[in-house]
Amino acid sequence: IRFKLTLTEDTPTIKTYFEDRWADLADYRLLSLESSLSFIASLHERWVILLRSLDRNDLSKEFMHPDSGRVDLARNIGIYAWHGRHHLAHITSLIERMSWK
Hints:
By secondary structure, the protein is mainly alpha-helical. It has one domain (2-97): Four Helix Bundle (Hemerythrin (Met), subunit A). 65% of the residues lie in helices and 8% in strands. It is built from 6 helices and 2 strands, in the order H-H-H-H-H-E-E-H. The protein has a two-stranded antiparallel ribbon with strand order 1-2. It is globular, with a radius of gyration of 16 Å. The N and C termini lie far apart (34 Å).
């Protein structure tokens, strides 16, 4: 949503949110892991198409983050890449700890 806002508006101010509270909602608690994995696979498929379409002008567009200030899309891609690897490390560690593989 942040990328699309930034691509379609002039320096939008994005909203922060409490991700941890989302886990308490019914769609997180009641749906299967497979459903979540399917959802994220579809989301990533869309991300790839969108990100590959961006040019230098698009990557220089900025949003205003309440805590971080102005952030351009090029920098935010790096932040999201790190964030994704961070989550993957947690998942991999849990799989190993639980001997699921």
